[in-house]
Amino acid sequence: MEHRQINENYQRIAESLIDTEPELAYIKASCVRIAYLESDSAKKADADKLVLGECEKVQAKNKWAINYDFTITLFKNNLVGLSADQIRIVMFHELLHVGVEPGPDGDENYSVRKHDLEDFKLIIDKFGTDWSKPARKVK
User: Using one digit for the tens of pLDDT, what is the confidence trace for 72-97?
Assistant: First the structure.
């Protein structure tokens, strides 16, 4: 059974990224609330590809119990061998999924942004194509 818990270190990493990375300025300017979680499961996208992290929007029906708009979960068993810098890149990538748009009444609308060419290009331009290989030095 998977166990997820709040991880304050991941929160500090995310807050630092939100404060310093211009691509995340929209998060800093918003009222969005994000919970940063660690999972003890080893999630896979398919037979060969490990999932390092995921961003999920908290569904309206769960807002009564979860006082956040999004959760970002990093899967600790899949991060084994990654440096602190590589984990920052994983968090940066997951933060790029947080979608915040102005609503018609001045409130904010939230969505999970899908992967797109710009997202992947941004990660590749900043960190290279093989940034996620264990023990790899990154910019």
Answer: 999 999 999 999 999 999 999 999 99
